[in-house]
């Protein structure tokens, strides 16, 4: 198994390649980060969390950021989603800054916890962002759109249920419906299935691939679970620690649609074994840095 750096248009690039301006090229990646570093100030000291990260995600791509706990995956996702500004480097989403992309509702963000309002029903939770972001939109249109999104995530029977009456997987489906209701171009997902049991997690992965195949959103997905990253993604970007950087970008060549048989394909096992090795090497290098 070889590194994807030379073979695919996503992932780490050399500093020479950085001279080209992706935004001006017709085949520009949908999302890119160039030379991104991030420092946090902790107790009067500078803590460098990300160092010189380059990343490219094509339109309609599914890229997972894979790395050990605490390596900086969420920080990178927050930079791509406009929730943080980098200390150094640049980020672009659809040819604009992430903050502008958020303002134009091009980015939907899904966190590990579904963050639903407990006193609202599933339907009202899905309506919520539409109501807040477009106050002039007719009420009936918002309701129709929310119902359509609940149908898309298979929860049309649960529209009157409150979050406490839903399982963890169902709550996450509601939060995905809420994000999709605004029809963003990009979904940024930060360990969205991390709090779920193993079987529900696999079901949610099947479900997410169905949604992706139907909607063709560009998805950036954070996980520290190798199987999950391989099962879902077109590309897995492996991050090393201390400070976090991209150590490999691997195209996953398994055919879509993927389903439970995918886990039994020899190439699936070979790919996960390769990624496990790289992660361990990156972890060892980070410890001795
Ligand atoms: N706002 C902040 N201020 C200071 N340090 C921070 C801040 N946010 C993150 N960090 C630090 O940055 C490092 C990376 O954190 P991050 O949450 O990005 O890692 P992660 O790979 O997503 O971890 P996990 O998989 O456990 O969620 C950690 O050491 C964390 O303590």
TrEMBL record:
Which controlled-vocabulary keywords does the entry list?
A: ATP-binding, Cell membrane, Membrane, Nucleotide-binding, Transport
What does the record give under GO molecular function? ATP binding; ATP hydrolysis activity
Region spans: Disordered:
1-20
Among InterPro entries, the record links this protein to: AAA+_ATPase, ABC_transporter-like_ATP-bd, ABC_transporter-like_CS, ABC_transporter_ATP-bind, P-loop_NTPase
Domain ABC transporter: residue ranges: 33-266
Name of a matching Pfam family: ABC_tran
Question: What CDD domains does its record include?
Answer: ABC_NrtD_SsuB_transporters
Q: The organism sits in which domain of life?
A: Bacteria
Q: Residues of the signal sequence?
A: none
Q: Which protein family is it in?
A: Belongs to the ABC transporter superfamily.
Protein name per UniProt: ABC transporter ATP-binding protein
């Amino acid at each position: 198994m070889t590194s994807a750096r030379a073979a695919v248009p996503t992932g780490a690039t050399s500093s020479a390649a950085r001279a080209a301006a992706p935004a001006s090229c017709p085949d520009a990646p949908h999302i890119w980060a160039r030379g991104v570093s991030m420092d946090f100030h902790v107790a009067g000291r500078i803590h460098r969390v990300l160092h010189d990260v380059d990343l490219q995600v094509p339109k309609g791509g599914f890229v997972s950021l894979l790395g050990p706990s605490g390596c900086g995956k969420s920080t990178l996702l927050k930079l791509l989603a406009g929730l943080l500004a980098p200390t150094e480097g640049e980020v672009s989403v659809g040819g604009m800054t992430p903050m502008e992309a958020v303002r134009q509702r091009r980015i939907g963000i899904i966190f590990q916890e579904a963050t639903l309002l407990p006193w609202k029903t599933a339907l009202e939770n899905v309506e919520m962002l539409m109501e807040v972001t477009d106050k002039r939109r007719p009420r009936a249109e918002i309701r129709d759109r929310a119902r359509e999104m609940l149908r898309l995530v298979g929860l049309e029977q649960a529209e009157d249920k409150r979050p406490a009456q839903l399982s963890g997987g169902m709550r996450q489906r509601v939060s995905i419906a809420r994000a999709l209701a605004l029809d963003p171009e990009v979904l940024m997902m930060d360990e969205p299935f991390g709090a779920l049991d193993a079987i529900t997690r696999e079901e949610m992965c099947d479900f997410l691939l169905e949604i992706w195949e139907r909607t063709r959103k560009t998805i950036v997905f954070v996980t520290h679970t190798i199987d999950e990253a391989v099962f879902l993604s077109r590309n897995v970007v492996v991050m090393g620690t201390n400070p976090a950087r991209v150590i490999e970008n691997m195209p996953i060549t398994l055919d879509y649609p993927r389903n439970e048989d995918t886990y039994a394909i020899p190439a699936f096992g070979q790919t996960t074994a390769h990624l496990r090795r790289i992660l361990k090497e990156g972890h060892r290098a980070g410890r001795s840095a």
